[in-house]
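#struct-help
A.M.: can someone run this one for me? Single chain, 151 residues.
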Amino acid sequence: MSTPLLQYRLQGKENYRLGEPLIIEFVLENLSKQNIWVLTWYTPLEGLKGKIFEVTCDGKPVPYEGIMAKRGNPRGEDYILIPSNEAVSATVDLSKAYKIQQSDECQVKFKGRIHDFSSTEDVVPKENARHNSLNIPGNVVSFRIADSEPQ
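D.P.: on it. Structure tokens below:
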């Protein structure tokens, strides 16, 4: 099995309090020997602008209730350079787009899809019809949501 070009890693705290920000860090790593330009759309690198996470709490799906961005063709600034063997990261507050209640176990997974990438800067941006999508592997982050009152 070949090594993937990119992989993601989610990080968060083990415990959050209800009503407080639910900050998750997203790290996107370039595992290749070449620089890669990645379209940030539909990734946490652009913030929460669509249903990019699968969130479950106590085994039940939590629906996405945030904004849904409409897209034309991307511009150059919609891409980010990830140098060879380096990473970029961003944090998002899940409480801004998901109504997460007190739970013993919540799990969050990025849907794992990059909508366009290139190893050559002069070919980005590309029209939507020419996008080269890529599914990327990564982890699931688990945490608990405690009552907002101290115990």
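A.M.: thanks! The CA atoms of residues 76 and 125 lie 5 Å apart.
D.P.: also worth noting: The chain has a mean pLDDT of 93.
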